[in-house]
Each structure stands twice: as C-alpha cells, then as structure tokens.
Amino acid sequence: MGHTAGERRLADKLPLAGRRSKAGVVILGVGAVMVALYSVIFSLLMAHEGADHSWAASIYWTITTMSTLGYGDITFESDLGRLFSLWVLLSGVVYMLVLLPFFVIQYVVTPWLDRRRAARTPRKVPPTLRDHVLLVGSDAVTQAFAARAERSRVPAVVVLEDVVRAGELHDQGRQVVVGPLDSAATYRNAGASRARLVVSTLSDTANTNVAFTARQAAARVPVAVTASKPVSVDVLDLAGADHVLELGQVLGREMASRVLGSTGRYHAIGSFGDTLIAEAAARGTCLVGLTLGEALQSLRSRVRVLAIMRKGRLRKMTPDLRITDATVLVLAGTAEDLDEYDAQFQTIGCSEDPVVILGGGRVGRAASRALSDEGVPNTIVELEPGRVENSYSVLEGTASYAVVHGDAADQRILRRAGLEHASGVLVTPRDDDLNVYLTLFCRRLRPELQIVSRATYERNVATLYRAGADGVLSYATIGATELWNHAGLSHRVLVAEGNELFLVPRPASLARRSVRDDAVRRRTGCHIVAVLDEDGTLAYDTESIPSAPGQLLLLGDRHAERRFRETYLGRRRRLRRSGPTDLGARG
C-alpha cells in the first residue's frame, strides 16, 4: 500500500531521531564509565600511598581533573599517581572538548537553529497576493520557471515541506510557503484559490496527491503537473489535473523538430497567434552562397527572416552576411507563407536523409515517433537489448525506424546505424558527460553533420555547444516554457537552449528607431526581430518601431532579457512592482 507524505516524513525522521538518541546514550555512557573507572583507580592508588578518601571525594577528584579545573586540594605523592593524573587529564580534555561539544551541538544548538529557521520561513502568503503561480517542489523545471517569473515580475510562490531548502530559497529572495504537501491547509495558506496556476513537478505518485489535495483548496484554479510515464496521464486527470505534461515526450518531439533535414523545408517550432515560427536549413537550397540582402530580395513570399543562426549562435543581420551550408534561418509567417517558402526553396524529388538517434529511452523513442510521423527514416542506437522494439511501421505512408544494439561510442556501431549517410544526430541520454563525449565524437567523424543534444544541467549547455552541438535542449527549459505558456503569461518560443523568442511592451524610448537597431543588441544582447500590433499580429513590413502601444518580439537569452528589461522597462517595472507585468499575447 502507498504512504502519505506525512507518513513518509515521519518515517524519515524516526531513524534520524533514533540515531541521535543512540549517539547521545553512547556519549553519556562513555563519560560515566570513565568517571567510575578513574574513581576506582584513584581510590586504589591513594590507598597504596596510605591515604583514605571517600567515594564522593574520588568522584570529585576525577571530575575536577578531567575538566582541567584541578583545585590542588587532593594530589598524589608517588610518580605512578602523577602519571595517572596526567592520563585522566588528557583523556578528560578529549572527552570534554570534543565529545561533549558534539553532544551540545547535536542536541542543543542544531535543534535551536532548526526552530529558528522554521520560525522565520513563511507559512502563509499575504492576503493581497493574487494572480501568482504556485510551484510545488524545487527541481530544475520549477527553478527555471521561478527565475523566468522573477525577470518578468510575475509573482511565483514555491511550496515545500523541507524547511532547510525553503530557508535557502527564502534567503535567495524567493517567495516560499512551508507545509505538508498532502494537506489542503498548505495550499490555502499559499493562496491557491487566488492563484493563476498550480504547478507540480514531483514524481507521478506525488503529483497525483498534490493535484487531488490542491483541488480541495482551489476548485477552479488550473492545476498542471508533469508525468514521467504515459500510464500516469489518466490517473493524474482523475486526480484533478487540468494539464499533464509528459516531459520526455515533449522533449523528444522538440528535439526531432530541430532536425532540419536535407531538403531545405521549414520546420515549425512554435507560434504567436496565427504567426508560425519555423526553422529552415539553407543547406541544399539555392540560398547557399547568397548574401542576406540578396536572399531577402529573392523571397517571393511574405515570410519574414527573424534571425540567422550558425552552430547554435545568432549572427548579426547585415545585408552582406553570407549564407553557408551551416546557416539556419529563423522564419515567421502564416502557414500559407511558409508553404510558399517551401515551394520556392525546397529541393523537390529528394527524400529526407535518415537521422540517427543515440539512446532509446523515453526521449529517444518520442523523437523517433515524431520523425517517423514526418516521414523521416531514423535509426535508434541503444546499448540495452530489448529496451526498444526492433522495428515497426507507424501510420500508413510514414517511415519506420530501425534499432541497432551496441555502444554509441563505437565507430563500428555508428557505421551500422548509417551515420555516414545521415542528415543529423540526436543525442538523447540523460548523462551530460556522455552527451558531451558523443557530441564531440560525432562532430569529429562528420564535421558537416547536424547535431542536436540534450542537456540535464544548465551549466553543461555551453560545454555541449563547444563540443560541436548545433542545438541544445533540456528538460528544465522545455518544461518551464511549456508551463509558462500554459499559464497564459507572456508567450515564448524556444529556439534552442539559451535562445528564446519572447514579447515585451514597446518602450517609449525606442519609438521610431529601426527594428534592426544594432545599438540595442550591443547594449543588452537582445535582437529586436519584429513588431507586433495591438491585436497580436506580426507586422511584416514595419522597419521602424511605432510610437503607438504594442509589443516587440525579441530574441535572446535570460541575461539579455534581464538587461533589456532593466535598461528599457525599468520605470514600467517600478510602477508595477506590486503586481504582474503585461501578459502579452497568448499563442
């Protein structure tokens, strides 16, 4: 049978309390044995010298000597007695100055600090707080969401039952509420009924309990949870979750969508209203060799080129920028506009080259299904036999995948998987060290190959790019972006790890300046890629920023976003310090 969170906390505390009690008994027992033994030896040595002392005097001498007080009213006359006194003194120093302070710290100081920490960690949010997001747990996804909320001045409250972790986040400036996650009172104290969204990213079983409990405290507030297993989706729905995010499936599909193929066709990666955001590789098209100015003049559709990327890095949009085989165009337009782009530049009559997927876990299998649905043949390289079925044919008319069992770091295995003829490689294991190794290995084998890698920790993203990855995606960023957009906050589209498209209100100080103003990029690191009208539609023909109200579409990383907001929206943010920022358009 399952256990509640309260039972689990009690079970965790009981062994710790038992170990502390046992250690305390041992320390006190050692001290009592030392006092009793030394008192007996003292009496025997004193009797040998012809002195007679009571048991009270023996214990008195032993304790005063062990504690280094040594009043000198009782002393030995013989050398043997004096040597014994030295031994009692030295052992007493060890006991009094090492063991007893440890005992005091464990049983007096530490519990007192824990009580102080628990007392200063909030148990309730202010009653005026509303339209905030409740984040249950503290993993990479919730941390990324909280950091994004802080930059956008959107209230976010982290709900934890670990007092120590809650205190650390509280010291970092996060809004925190401490309480048992299986108690409806915790969510009431966190203002769940006034919240915009409740998000839980714990295990599937814990998320079920959280969704069920939070629904008691807030019947109408949306609850979004993550699921690691497809079979958990129905259970989480029954528990009251409105949105279940299968991170492995989403990450696999997103990685598959970044494989640009070999025919030059576009791949949609997101949208802003009716405007689709897509990527298209220049390789294999007539765009290769042209400058950006010449390419823009040759466009017959109303597609807008938002940015140019090479190896995951943004390039300055200048007319003389040369388009190469490694160039990736970030496009915006309606479905009809993008179809017209394909009609002009896609290589007709050629099938997509296969894709090699390293790793047959949930992410790798999800990427394989997405590629197969698009008609892209793919091969999964998996070390563990039986983890992936050998081959199957998905929907009629689509491609099937193949499986090669073996070590992905073996050149012979990669050759069997078809690396020499592949258009791209997806590196999907959850081990960042292995992903860096595989990325570097594949890049050395085929320098022109497109490589999209998965990252678990943000600190390894830059390393993966240096190893040769063209794109990097992670659970944290994918999950935070998906949940952010589901909350109805300012809509975002993830281009690659470290590069996002996001909306901001138009600063009055940028009115009538060029959309391609390089001063903004030099000052903040953000690229102004487009202007959005008040109704949220992308203005294709606008080359300067209007003075009328509206929004800007920016491209950059979190540091660039923070600098832009501080530089151009600082006054607006100060005026709105008590509430959330402009929420922008919802895709």
UniProtKB/TrEMBL annotation:
Residue span, RCK N-terminal domain: 130-245, 352-473
What InterPro entries would the database entry show?
A: K_chnl_dom, NAD(P)-bd_dom_sf, RCK_C, RCK_C_sf, RCK_N, Trk_Ktr_HKT_K-transport
An annotated GO cellular component of this protein is: plasma membrane
Which GO terms label this protein's molecular function in UniProt? Answer: monoatomic cation transmembrane transporter activity
Q: A Pfam family in this protein?
A: TrkA_N
Keywords (alphabetical) are:
Membrane, Transmembrane, Transmembrane helix
Q: Which residues form the RCK C-terminal domain?
A: 264-347
Q: Which GO terms are recorded in the biological process aspect for this UniProt protein?
A: potassium ion transport
Which membrane topology term applies here? Multi-pass membrane protein
The superkingdom of the source organism is Bacteria
Mark the transmembrane ranges.
Answer: 23-47, 53-72, 84-109
Annotated compartments? Cell membrane
Output this protein's name.
Potassium transporter
Record the organism: Brachybacterium saurashtrense
